[in-house]
Amino acid sequence: MSLEEAILDKVRRLPPAKQEEVLRFADVLQRGATARMVPSRDRTQEMKWIDENRAAYADQWVAVEGDRLIGADPDPLKVFAAAKAQGIRSPFVVHVLPEDPLPFVPGW
User: Fold this and answer.
1) Which domain, by its residues, includes 50?
2) Full-model pTM
3) Where is pLDDT greater, at 54 or 25?
4) Mean pLDDT over residues 15-23, rounded?
5) Please, are residues 48 and 66 in contact by the beta-carbon 8 Å criterion?
6) Is 77 exposed, middle or buried, given 0-12, 13-18 or 19+ CB atoms closer than 10 A?
7) Residue 75, pLDDT above cutoff 90
8) Within a domain: residue 108?
9) Does any domain span residue 103?
10) Are 88 and 63 in contact, with CB atoms under 8 Å apart?
């Protein structure tokens, strides 16, 4: 049995969903395309800012860049637009939830 036949035999034994995944991957390889890697960014500073300023911006949408507030508003589209207007390519926009002082325990 050749290598190609052995691979095909293994693929045929996979569940249909996995077979489809293998076929898509083979198609990408055949076209010579490389998988596009999307860079991720560490947002530790932004999350720290949100934790420290949660009470002041509870129930609002905020855009934060590093340790700097870009915009805050109940309307997320306005916040996103403000960040884009300042030239931020990928704004970090989140809805700030109020801190829950007590956990909900049903039945008590």
Assistant:
1) 44-96
2) 0.58
3) 54
4) 82
5) no
6) exposed
7) yes
8) no
9) no
10) yes
Residues 6+ apart with CB under 8 A from 72: 57, 60, 61, 62, 63, 79
87 and 59 in a single domain? The answer is yes
Q: Which tokens belong to 49?
A: 């800012």
Return the axis-axis angle of helices 3-12 and 16-31, rounded to nearest 10°. Answer: 140
Tokens linked to 66:
């590093």
Residue 59 lies in a domain: yes
Residue 55 CA to residue 30 CA, distance in Å, equals 54
Give the total number of structural domains in the chain: 2
pLDDT in tens, 78-98: 999 999 999 998 899 999 988
Three-state DSSP at 73 gives strand
CB 99 within 8 A of CB 52: no
* Angle in degrees, CA 94, 100, 106, rounded to 5: 125
